[in-house]
Every structure is written in structure tokens, then in C-alpha cells.
Design brief:
There is one protein chain. The protein is an all-alpha fold and about 425 residues long. Helix content is about 75%, strand content about 0%. The protein has one domain: Amino acid/polyamine transporter I (Up-down Bundle), CATH 1.20.1740. A two-stranded parallel sheet has the order 1-2. The longest helix is centred in the middle third of the chain and has 36 residues, at about 245-280.
Length: about 425
């Protein structure tokens, strides 16, 4: 059960990164913690991509700080599910996609694969629109040209061929820090009401009494808990090469849990900052209909009174879209190799995914105009929420299977919480469908 690969190098492809980061057995705890840190950061990128921006900005502008508790709740749900995914990869030494192929009938596995691929395309659509919009705002080029330029990010992936996995993690960390610094400065400029912020984290379901609030809440959930991240985490966590006995696995779980919680807590802070900024800058000033990212950009400078505010917003948006490029590519590779046992060059995979995302992006903007970006991004996140239960179901089943997980199988409390999350997400999706009919 605990047999480990011994790959010594770490090119930028999933089949070749497992077991690529050696964790010395006798190293001090702080060094081990540093060695285990990384997979959580790659996963956290998906929790602060342009899709989160669109839902958080609209929620903040419409409802002020009132939906912060949803961001917190969605983040706690994400932490639990990602910890289950991490545990599955460390114990079973196979990722979620591989186990689905092995344990389900082929039609079922193919169905799950298609849904997971749709989730990546929906996520990439948000990245295309977000990055294209950032280029449009920062460099005054047309939105359609900005979207077209995003196709060139395939060259970034190609340039990373042969690079170590730790280098990829370092690049992503740098982009995350850029996002965090931009928002820290913007919050200093906008000076939110911190007492109202604290009240916003108190759960209040009565705030979901309108169809728009419910729609946004499902979008926040889909933007925060991404289906393909569950497949991604179960694979990349295997990059850490440790001993093969139960005590070594237990130690790996402990340190990887710390990495996951810390990284997703960082994502929670960024997502909360986005909503707080929108609430303080827009809702408080009476601009309650800011649903477009470009409107947020243009309103920041006159409302905040600092020319740097809008520029920081654009830079952070661009960093957000580009950081998600790396994880989306790796997740796509994992899905193809896990479900189909098929391996293609990473840049080929990136080109396919980006092409499939560019088509609806071009059509949507050309048909609906530049002002449709926010609506398209939020809609893509709602699509992610509808696909989420189909990734959660096998994850819970596998991590609860003692034949597969042994002593590391989920306990009663964890299983109960996970199934409650599954039921809650399904109910929210069903409720939204009924409200939209």
C-alpha cells in the first residue's frame, strides 16, 4: 500500500514528478515543513483566480459585507475536501482520477472524466476573460485582442519544460505574493469598516432571500471549491518522497495538512479582501450594481482617490490569471493520464484547453459586448458548482474505504461532515435550478 516511486528529477509533467522532492528522514521539523510546503500553494491558486474575483466583487458591491460568511464557509469546505484529497494521494499512492478508472465501470469513469474536463474548461474560461481584461485595462488594447494574447501563455508552459517542480511552486508563490501585496495596499487606501467586516463573517442565511443572492452564493461555492483541484491535489502531493512505513505516511499527512490549511487560509484572506474592497469602495458609496471587473477597475481611482488603486487591481488580476495557468495545465495532464492512461506533452495539453476556452470567450464578448465579462465569469463558476458533487462522491467513497486506506480511512466525524457537504452542495444547486425555472 505504501510503496513509493523513486524518480529523481522533476520535469513539468505529472507522470514524472511523483517522488521528486526528497524529505530527509532525520531533518528538523522546520526543514520538513519547508520541504512539504508547495502542493497546497498550487491548489490555492484555483481559489483566488479571476472567477473568485467576479463573484466576490459582485457580492461585495450588492450586499456589502453581508456575504463574507459564505466566503468563510466555502473556504472551510475547501480545506476539508482538499485534506481528503491530499490524504488519498499520500496513502493510496494513486490519484483520484486513477482510482476512478480502476474502480468504476468504463462508462462511469468516462462520464466523470468529461465532467472534470468541462470544469477545467470553465475555469480556463474565467482565466482567459480575466487575463484578457487585465491586458485591456492596463495597456488600453481591445478586449478581444487581450483575449487573443492569452493564447500565448502556452509559450510559458513550453518554457517550463524540464524545470523542477519546486521551481514551478516558487513561481506560483511569487504570483500569489504579488496578488496579496496589491490587495493589502488597496485595503489601506480604501479603509473599510472593520467592525462591519467582523459582523459579515457571522452566518446569516436570511441574506440569501433573493434569487440573485442565491445565484451568487452558488457562484462563490463553485469559484472556491473547484472540482479539478480535488484531482490535482491527490497527484501533486505525491511529489514528496518519504519513507514507506505507516509512521512516515502519518508524518507526511501531518505536514501536508499544515501546508494545505495554511495555503487555503491565504486564499481565504485574498478572497475576503476582494469582497471587503468591493463593499468598502462600491457598496458604501451607493454603487450597488458593480458586477463587471472593468467597472470595478474604473471606479476605484475616483472613489478611493489614489491613481495607484486601479493599477494595482489590474496587476493583481493579471497575476491571478497567469498563476492559474500552471495549475490548470497540470490538472489537465492528471485527468488525461488518470482517466485515459494517455500522456501528451504539457504544451499540447495547454493548447487544447486554451483553445476550447477561447471559443466561448470570443463568442460571448463579440455577441454580448465588453460589459458581459463579469456575467460570463460568474456563470462559469456556477457551472463548476454543478460539477462539484461528481468529484466529491468518489473522493468520499475512496477515503472511507478501509481496504484502500487502512488505518488512515476517514473516521465517523470526517465522513459525516463530508457527506453533509455533499448534500448541502446538491441542495444549493437544486434550489438554484428551481428558482431559475
Amino acid at each position: 500500500m505504501f510503496g513509493l516511486p523513486t524518480t529523481a528529477t522533476a520535469p513539468f509533467c505529472p507522470t514524472e514528478v511523483r517522488g521528486s522532492v526528497l524529505v530527509p528522514k532525520q531533518a528538523p521539523w522546520w526543514r520538513k515543513l519547508m520541504q512539504y510546503a508547495g502542493p497546497g500553494l498550487l491548489v490555492s491558486v484555483g481559489y483566488m483566480d479571476p472567477g473568485n474575483w467576479a463573484t466576490d466583487i459582485e457580492a461585495g458591491s450588492r450586499y456589502g459585507y453581508g456575504l463574507l460568511w459564505l466566503v468563510l464557509g466555502a473556504s472551510l469546505v475547501a480545506i476539508l475536501l482538499q485534506c481528503l484529497s491530499m490524504r488519498l494521494g499520500l496513502v493510496a499512492r494513486r490519484d483520484l482520477a486513477q482510482l476512478c478508472r480502476e474502480r468504476y465501470a468504463k462508462p462511469v469513469a468516462m462520464f466523470l472524466w468529461v465532467l472534470a474536463e468541462l470544469a477545467i474548461i470553465a475555469c480556463d474560461l474565467a482565466e482567459v476573460l480575466g487575463s484578457g481584461l487585465a491586458l485591456h485595462l492596463l495597456f488600453n488594447i481591445s478586449l478581444l485582442n487581450g483575449i487573443a494574447i492569452t493564447a500565448l501563455d502556452t509559450l510559458l508552459v513550453l518554457g517550463l519544460k524540464g524545470k523542477g517542480f519546486r521551481q514551478i511552486e516558487a513561481i506560483v508563490l511569487g504570483l500569489i505574493l504579488a496578488i496579496g501585496i496589491c490587495y493589502a495596499v488597496e485595503l489601506l487606501l480604501v479603509q473599510p469598516d472593520w467592525l462591519a467586516v467582523a459582523r459579515g463573517f457571522i452566518p446569516d442565511p436570511s441574506r440569501l432571500d433573493s434569487g440573485q443572492a442565491l445565484y451568487l452564493s452558488v457562484g462563490i461555492l463553485g469559484a472556491t471549491v473547484m472540482p479539478h483541484n480535488l484531482y490535482l491535489h491527490s497527484s501533486i502531493v505525491q511529489t514528496r518522497l518519504t519513507g514507506g512505513d505507516a509512521s512516515a505516511v502519518r508524518e507526511a499527512i501531518r505536514y501536508s495538512t499544515a501546508d494545505t490549511v495554511a495555503s487555503l487560509s491565504l486564499a481565504l484572506i485574498v478572497n475576503s479582501a476582494i469582497l471587503i474592497l468591493a463593499a468598502a469602495a462600491f457598496n458604501a458609496a451607493g454603487h450597488t450594481e458593480v458586477a463587471e471587473l472593468q467597472d470595478a477597475y474604473r471606479l476605484l481611482e475616483p472613489l478611493v482617490g489614489a491613481a495607484a488603486a486601479a493599477t494595482l487591481f489590474g496587476v493583481a488580476l493579471l497575476a491571478s490569471g497567469q498563476s492559474a495557468t500552471f495549475t490548470g495545465t497540470i490538472a489537465g495532464q492528471i485527468l488525461m493520464e488518470g482517466f485515459l492512461n494517455l500522456s501528451i506533452p504539457c504544451w499540447h495539453r495547454r493548447l487544447i484547453t486554451r483553445a476550447l476556452a477561447l471559443i466561448p470567450a470570443f463568442i460571448g464578448v463579440a455577441w454580448l459586448g465588453d460589459g458581459a465579462v463579469g456575467k460570463l465569469v460568474v456563470a462559469s463558476q456556477v457551472v463548476l458548482s454543478f460539477q462539484l458533487p461528481f468529484a466529491i462522491w468518489p473522493l468520499i467513497r475512496f477515503t472511507s474505504d478501509r481496504a484502500l486506506m487502512g488505518e488512515f480511512a476517514s473516521g465517523v466525524v470526517t465522513r459525516t461532515a463530508a457527506w453533509a457537504i455533499f448534500a448541502l452542495i446538491g441542495a444549493a444547486n437544486g434550489w438554484l435550478v428551481l428558482r431559475m425555472l
